[in-house]
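Hi V.,

You were right to ask for the full record rather than a summary. Here it is.
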Amino acid sequence: MSLQEIYHQFIEGIKHTGWLEYLAVFAGIASVWFSRLENILVYPVGLINTIIYIYLSFKGHLLGEAAVNFYYTVMSLYGWLLWAKKDAQLHPVVSITFSNKKEWGQQVLFFSIFYAAIFFSLTYLKKSFATGAIPWADAFASATAFTAMWLMTKKKVESWYWWIATNIASIPLYFVKAYVFTSVYYLVLLVMAFFGLKEWIQRTKKVTVPADRHLP
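Predicted structure:
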């Protein structure tokens, strides 16, 4: 595809973008902004985005995307409750931390299981219902997103690595499926994910440095 063809498809895609998709995109951007700041509003605002995309995905026969956003919705409710929990001193129960080797292994296993399940499901469903599916690409974008969202609820720094992978995969994926504005949305999210990663790494340093000062 030439640059001229890409530009033409982009302009046509923007013209056919409905107000619901615009609302979902702006809610999604706001949600990522709040997550970067470790603000609990990430979840209620994110629910606006995910619920709309469930509807749009089913409407466009995009089962992979619908499954991802349904999972986002469930995990947003779970994350909302988890982030809101406080201990006896009214401190958040969950704080930003790095994953250890065992947790990294769990993440890779989590991703692999979902990738295989989604890939084989979409390969089968593509013949009858999910005609717009691209099994290998949809499975990768979905499985990385599932892993990222799970880690986000636990406030793991590594969630941003998985979000970066999701966004990189989703930019061309949505573009070829004619969801051009959503493709641009994932480009914005990719940039924001790098800033989110940097922010969370800095926040872990702010937590650990004072503690280190008390060491003999």
